[in-house]
């Protein structure tokens, strides 16, 4: 039975991804900074008949990443699937963000992925292969106004993933990214509220402006996003590596 570690899985896209993997029979370790949401996510996996493990951790801290990986291996005996995921950084125009904001975002969004991959890859090598799936953003395809930190650092993760996909292919470790578009999560509500405050409009108006740009005419659901994560982790995706799959309802207008 495969083993997965899903990061930032107490709610939203991470939780939906963990639950989708568990439904496919994968044993799932989930991590987040703790609290009732993390425990509730693990309980939901167990209640549905899955095998879940909740680990409190702050992925900005290298020691916490080491502990998460060691705890997962100790419980399940190995690691086959790593789903990296981080919360979104502060929004705002470039000149409103100081060096501390950049440093914190780099630790959270880029170095956490580097450290997770460095720790996970030897365990995948020992098992003859594995999957690394990075949750990024459609901003890697089409930068989003007011999200300069995300635009820059999600793209860096994409570059890392493409490099690793080539390096690790001979060892049957597949590396891909999934880029969520506007999905009905707490993060999207936060961004709509921030845009409304900056522009003097209502959050409802800010949200409708987003929906108007989605060809399918609605936001996605975490479950729709998670289905793509589950596909990339499955045997059906055994010849897919080095790609970024947008799950955005057609929002990105550029060619793939």
Question: What do these coordinates show?
Answer:
The chain is of the alpha/beta class. Helix content is 48%, strand content 15%. It contains eight helices and seven strands, in the order E-H-E-H-E-H-E-H-E-H-E-H-H-H-E. The chain has helices at residues 12-23, 36-47, 62-76, 99-126, 148-168, 186-199, 203-211, 222-233, and strands at residues 3-7, 27-32, 52-56, 81-84, 130-135, 173-180, 244-247. Strand 5 (130-135), helix 5 and strand 6 (173-180) form a beta-alpha-beta unit. The two termini are 34 Å apart.
Number of helices: 8
Shape summary:
globular
Largest sheet geometry: 7 strands, parallel
Instruction: Give the overall average pLDDT.
Output: 93
Order of helices and strands: EHEHEHEHEHEHHHE
By helix and strand content, what is the structural category? alpha/beta
- The N- to C-terminal Cα distance equals 34 Å
> What ranges have pLDDT less than 50 throughout 5 or more consecutive residues?
none
Structural Rg = 18 Å
Fraction of residues in helix = 40-55%
What fraction of the residues are assigned to beta strands by DSSP? Answer: 5-15%
Strand runs, count: 7
The order of strands across the largest sheet is 3-2-1-4-5-6-7
TL;DR of this structure?
This protein has helices at 12-23, 36-47, 62-76, 99-126, 148-168, 186-199, 203-211, 222-233, and strands spanning 3-7, 27-32, 52-56, 81-84, 130-135, 173-180, 244-247.
């Amino acid at each position: 039975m495969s083993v997965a570690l899903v990061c930032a899985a107490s709610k939203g896209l991470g939780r939906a991804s963990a639950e989708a993997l568990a439904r496919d029979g994968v044993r799932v370790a989930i991590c987040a900074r703790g609290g009732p949401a993390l425990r509730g996510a693990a309980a939901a996996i167990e209640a549905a008949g899955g095998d879940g493990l909740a680990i409190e951790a702050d992925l900005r801290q290298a020691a916490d990443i080491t502990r998460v990986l060691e705890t997962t291996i100790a419980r399940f005996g190995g690691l086959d699937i790593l789903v990296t995921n981080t919360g979104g950084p502060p929004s705002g125009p470039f000149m409103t963000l100081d060096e501390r904001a950049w440093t914190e975002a780099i630790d959270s969004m880029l170095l956490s992925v580097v450290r997770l991959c460095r720790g996970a890859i030897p365990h995948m090598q020992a098992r003859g292969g594995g999957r690394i799936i990075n949750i990024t953003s459609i901003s890697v395809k089409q930068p989003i106004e007011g999200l300069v930190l995300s635009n820059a650092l999600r793209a860096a993760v994409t570059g890392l993933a493409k490099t690793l996909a080539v390096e690790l292919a001979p060892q049957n470790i597949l590396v891909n990214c999934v880029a969520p578009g506007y999905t009905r999560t707490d993060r999207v509500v936060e961004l709509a509220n921030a845009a409304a405050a900056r522009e003097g409009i209502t959050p409802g108006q800010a949200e409708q402006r987003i929906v108007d740009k989605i060809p399918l005419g609605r936001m996605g659901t975490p479950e729709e996003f998670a289905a793509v994560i589950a596909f990339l982790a499955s045997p059906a995706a055994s010849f897919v590596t080095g790609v970024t799959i947008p799950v955005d309802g057609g929002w990105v207008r550029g060619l793939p």
